[in-house]
Request: fold
Amino acid sequence: MAAVGRWRAGMALLALLALGFGRVRAEQTEEHLKREHSLSKPYQGVGSASSGLWDLLGNAMVMTQFIRLTPDVQSKQGAVWNRVPCYLRDWEMQVHFKIHGQGKKNLNGDGFAIWYTKDRMQPGPVFGSKDNFLGLGVFVDTYPNEEKQQERVFPYISAMVNNGSLTYDHDRDGRPTELGGCTAMVRNLPHDTFLVIRYVKRRLTVLIDIDGKHEWRDCIDVPGVHLPRGYYFGTSSVTGDLSDNHDIISLKLYQLTVERTPEEEKRDREVFLPVVDNLKLPGMEAPLEPMSGLALFLIVFFSLVALVFAIVIGIIVYNKWQEQSRKHFY
Reply:
């Protein structure tokens, strides 16, 4: 009986410790589902002109169990976009999706993208949405366009932050501008497939759950990512000569409440253009800090002094030349 009593006491202690640990984690990061930025069954009002929070574009269709961005048909493109801009500081987007079709390996395409961008509802060549975008794109690319590369296995997930000056390189599968990525075998699976995009304290992470084990696996982890607030969430897809069904089952956005130190508050100040720290990509350099009033005054002052000095030297040289000319004449 004493042993049983000690066992019960030990189990109670473990339960208390677990509860305390859970509370600590809850205090560090709290999650709140934001329905105005989320999309789930029964998809009420999606695509409605007068009501609803989401718009359909192109060939996207609302079905009973999913929203089909593109059917398994050539040369189709579709998208669904949130109507409400997101002003959250820290957030997590959970994407439940399914990619399937009749095509065999490397005879399918092209994939889909999840967006957090300034512009919405603009079709284009980047997985069905516009190029030179402002914001974040996470791409689930199912077809390799770059024939010579051998080290990358498709399907492949990658991320890109754009300040509007970069072009997505289709011929190289976006390699010149990607922040990171991972292989993800997501086609024609019998179980659910999930992807999570998390943006916390200027750190962008992407995790995947595609093995049917209900376990998250790391894919992308990039610190120093600065995204403006007030952009729109959306997802789009495109097919070309090859095709697939690209289905979105749900998009769930969670507001994350995290504590920040004063140093982190200063570091995470508001930005107006997307930028990534210490990333050497063409056109992605951080904007220069504006000059102070004193620095501007000193530059103008010394410029004027240099100009006056040059004028004085010029006058002296000119007078000497005239004097020499007169002597030579006489």
Q: What stands out?
A: The first strand starts at residue 29 and ends at 33. The chain has one domain: 30-269. The domain at 30-269 is CATH 2.60.120.200 (Jelly Rolls).
